[in-house]
Design goal:
- Helix 19 runs parallel beside helix 21.
- The chain has 630 residues and is an alpha+beta fold.
- A hairpin with a 2-residue loop joins strand 14 and strand 15.
- The chain is flat, with a radius of gyration of 32 Å.
- The protein has 22 helices and 23 strands.
- A five-stranded antiparallel β-sheet has the order 13-12-9-23-22, with no helix packed on it. Strands 14-15-16-17 form a four-stranded antiparallel β-sheet, with no helix packed on it. The chain has a four-stranded antiparallel β-sheet with strand order 18-19-20-21, covered by helices on one side.
- The chain has four domains: 115 residues, 2-Layer Sandwich (Potassium Channel Kv1.1, Chain A), CATH 3.30.710.10; 44 residues, no CATH class; 93 residues, Alpha Horseshoe (Serine Threonine Protein Phosphatase 5, Tetratricopeptide repeat); 192 residues, no CATH class.
Length: 630
Amino acid sequence: MSCMEPPYTESGVFSSEGDAAPKRKPTGTPDQEKESSPEHKLLLNTDYVESFFSSLCQLREQCLLLDLCVALEGRLYQAHSLPLAAISTFFTKILEQGQLGVVDLEGKVTCSGWECILDFAYEGQFEVRTETAEEVLRAAEALGACRVAALCKRCLEPTPKEYHKEEVVVSEERLQNLKGIQELYRRGVGWDVELQAAGAFFKVHRVALAAGSDFFRGMFTSGMKEAHQDTVSLSTFSSVDLPLFTPFIYSGSLLLGWDNVFEVTQAALPYQLAGILQLCYQFFREEMSPEHCLDVLALAEAYSLPELRREAEDFILRNIKEVVQVPKFQDLGADQLVALLSHDALYTTMEMEVFQAVLRWVDEDRETRLPQAARVMKCVRFPLMTNRELRQVIAADLMAPSEKCYKVLEASLLSVPKGPSVLSQLPCRVRTPGQALVIVGGDSLTRNFSSRVPSRDVWFTHRFISGIGLVKHIEWRALSSLPDVPRFRHAVAVLDNVLYVFGGNHFYGKEDVLKSVVRYDPLRGTWEKLADMQERHNYFQAVCLRGLIYVLGGNADNSNTPVPGHRGVLRPCKEHLEIRAPLARPPLRARRGHLEWWDLRLRRAARGYTMFSGISSITIRWLAPRHSLP
């Protein structure tokens, strides 16, 4: 019997009983949908590989499912034959012939050589030193452990003093071990149990299933009758589940596409197969699209998956303009639509787009949805519209004075305070996208490459557009301009969603290094000049940690000579930037533990921060729509 590949269905639409999941309308014939089926993506769960061998070690330590005992120099070593056969031709033959039990290795290997091979089978690594490498090499050659022998030969190679021997990459070796186990499964070597589900039979290795799944580990190691049966009937499994789970347990990888990922997720959830669910979530994050995001949201809501629900909602809110064009959007229930359109993070540059989305939703089933139209229309923030847009709103037949929706419009506009329009006094908030990547300043080459020109421009990512494969196109839009002079080789940081810009150069001379600090408030769209730093700085970094901004290293001029030991900490206040004393670096030996802990905190705080080619980039949470270009 050969390894069965997981079957793939033609439909990628999630469906469940009840109203939790929207149903997609047919978009073509089955043949057409089959032809347009997306390609599958092979995903590997590296965490699963580590977990698999960690579970194998635990099974060995707890003396569970052991089927082999090696006798050597008066000692007995109990182990599992499967991981040993994956790295050794000697044990492969024993497993093929079914000669399990006690294996005498007296005279073939030494204890230290055998223990290294045993460690390699379970952990993907072993301790090898120059003085013991030859002993381990002889054991590896005797037992047909080619990869262990290759590592020993590498250790024995004569090398110059300055050469550092290449370390064993444990994760790669464990993956190769798992591939060896997978090959034994494919060849049918050592099968010891047959699983039956919905009339289908699958021969597998008991220890492999126990190491790869908590469900099977409980079944085979907790004293249940299935632990001793040659054929185990799984009444709760469908004919689809086992062909899906078994290949993953032996490989840690899945072939996923939109036509099978919903089915895989639903199959893995009842058995809490964390490794499979991680790959499904990874696929959803990486391949999310306007065509499928609503199905992902329905899946997350139906099975109470909060993390996946946040991912889907965030994608919908950031790409609402494209999502409303998808036919599935018209299938949303009123509660779901209200939850999305009333969200502050809905990314739309014009409130008119929200109003048009409501009209399309109502027109999809006007007779049924008209009683709910007024409730949904309350999600539209009419005070944010221009007079021209409001005239277009009133022209819609749904907004006739006799309709309830007109009353919603009237009440919304009457809630605006009289007098000059002030953003902070509006009865509704400006919609705020979750995050945006911002690029500040920098310098660029002229068209003829003859010179470089410093820049004052500040840009933000208006949207990401998926291309073929991993290609992502970015639509950039202007946000603002630096208030005083151009800057490059500067540092940026975001604290409390306010953008701070420190130092840098405004030109290329030795005296053109800046020590000035400015900050930008995206809510008000205003710049503010703060107190200068104590020294001029360029080529440095700034990170935020617990309400403070740390300024680290840098140059005082353009000589590319770092300022030795410079570290500063700044505390932003309401009206100014309080500059505290530079941080003195303690002696490494005297406070080694404290220093390493402090550096680690700063590295964690700096995640997501990038400096390149004199341009500083940072992520901020909110951008005022009035700064978007049409």
